[in-house]
Every structure is written in C-alpha cells, then in structure tokens.
Write a structure and sequence with these properties.
With about 350 residues, the protein is of the alpha+beta class. The protein is built from 13 helices and six strands. The protein folds into two domains: about 110 residues, no CATH class; about 220 residues, Orthogonal Bundle (Hypothetical protein af1432), CATH 1.10.3210.10. About 45% of the residues lie in helices and about 5% in strands. The strands form two sheets. The chain has a four-stranded antiparallel beta sheet with strand order 3-4-5-6, covered by helices on one side. Strand 1 and strand 2 form a beta hairpin. The longest helix has 20 residues. The chain is globular and about 65 Å long. It starts with 6 loop residues before the first strand and ends in a 13-residue tail after the last strand.
Amino acid sequence: MEIDQTIVDHTGRKLICRGTILDEYMIASMLKMGIMGVYIGEGQDEDTTSDENLSPAIRETIEKNTVADQARVQLSESVKQRVSEGIRYLYNNAESEDFTQTTNSIANNLMNAVLENDSIAVDIDTLKVSDEYTFKHSVDVATMAMVVARKHGFSDQEIYEIGVSGLLHDVGKSRIPNEILNKPGRLTEEEFSIMKQHSLYGYRILQDKPDISNEIRLGVLQHHEKINGNGYPLSVPKEQICSYARILSIVDIYDALVTERPYKKGFSKRDAVEMIMAMTDELDISYMRSFLNSVILYPVGSTVQLSNGENARVVAGNPESILRPKVVGLKTGKLYDLLGDLSCASIVIL
C-alpha cells in the first residue's frame, strides 16, 4: 500500500513521506503512535506528486511550511468493534434493561477518544465502525457532535451528554416499517411523513428511561428542527430548540451528505461543507462556525488540484476557512496561501 499523506509528529517533523510503500514495521510504528487510519493512494499516474520526484528546493519549501493538523479523534480497532457491537445492540433492543448501561459504555469509549489526545478536530474517513449506514451514521454524528461541543466550550458533562444524544438520535427508526426504512429509492410523500416521526418515536423510547436526562431526550426529539421554524416533527421556533439539537442537526446533515447510499452517491466533503455554509437560515450560525473549525477537509500531506492547473501539497490547514489552506505547487514550488494572499484570491481547490 502506498501512503497518500505525510505522517508528522507533534513537532511537525516528517516521519513517513507521502508516496512511501508501507511495510509491517511502519504500520506497527504508526499504531504505537495511536495513528489508526491513513489515506492510501489508488493507482496514481507517475508524475511529480511523490516526494522522490520533487526537487530539493520544493521539498525544502514543503518541509519549512508544514504545520501539523489539529489533533483529531482516533478510534482503535478494538474500540471500533466494541462501539459497533454496542450500537447495533441498542437499535435492535430499544426496550432492553441494559439499554442505558450499553449507551453509557459506548459514550465513554467515544469520550475517552476525544480526550485522549486533546482532540479538537475530526476526519470522518478515519471513524468508520460499520458498513451498515444506521450504525455508522450514529457513531459519526455522536463523535462529530462531541468535538464541535468541545470546540464551542461546553463542559465535559455536556460533551458526554451530546454524545449520548448523537448515538441515540435515530433510535426511533427502530419503530419505522422496514419497507420504508430500507427502501432503495425516493420515499413517497406518505412514506416520508411516516419517516419524519422517527425523532418523536425516539423521544418516547427515552421517556421510559429515568437515567437519561431531559436534555438528551430533547436533542433526539429536535435534531431535525430548523431555526426558521420549518423543521420537524413539531416545527418549533429557534428559541425553543435546545443547544444539543442545534449541533446535532448540523453534523447529521453533513454526515448524510457525504455518505454513499444504495440510491445515491455521496457528495464530496468540500461540496457538503459549502452546502452547510449556505444553510444560514436553517442552522445556528455560531455552532456552524464551531463545526467548520472542527472539520479536517484537506489533511496536511494530501495532494490537491488547483484551478490554475497545478497539483499542490497541503502544508497547513486553516480552521477559520477550511476551504482555503496553505499549499505548495508541486511543479513550481510556489507557496499558495489561499486565504491570506490576495494574489491567490481567484484560485480554488478543485
């Protein structure tokens, strides 16, 4: 496997160059460092994108300007397995006496992953815990919501609770008929009106569980509400939507957009971010900013294509504007500061 990113340590020192063929020793070393997932190249053409083909001057420019990404959530394979089994159990046994205990066990695993390396960013490509959409989606939403809440300054207890709310936000789908839930095409108007009841069903499931707080229940109930009052199931105005739900609605939409389903292709992460940014009349802008500051869109070390025709290496992300990182051209060696340099204003990443 040819690695499609550069691995750096916490000081920014380059440990494994992009384009390197991985061996067992390198993989074992990365696992010891807590790196549980990397980007792998898919049959790239032979050009100047691998480090071996770059001139010394370009390599020096890349190294001099490389700034490591924000610490991101990493889930070990053992944690992924436990979380996958747990979330499957919850959605298939909503009435079980072990429901709350299992929920807390999963939430603890995710909370530990967030706190372990002081995570303030998330890359959902590294989170995958299941091939089944409902289970993968629940973990994605919970993890992203916890990171966004942490970025926004929530307390540890609130971060934990929003993780629980994210894990359970779709538990009401267990009461939706399978022929609607698993329909491989567009729902009819009648079918969609039934599907829209899942958040209400989820709230009712949790009402019978005294150890689950009202804030968690409200997050589940309101995660499809919109601040313009056009959401569902109750179409409540902005002032009545709880903070957990305002965050969950953002990460829920993002994950649904980027995830491929049998009946639709997933959007690119860039397109999904742009669509989220266009929803200022529906989504809370302050939580949207925290979400945008938490998403790693173009990982440091990855290669992108610029609108001027040049391929470039990402050397530093920009949390304040994730669509505009710093990159170095792989033919010219030019440093493009896509946000701070006005001469780059017309250049975008394709």
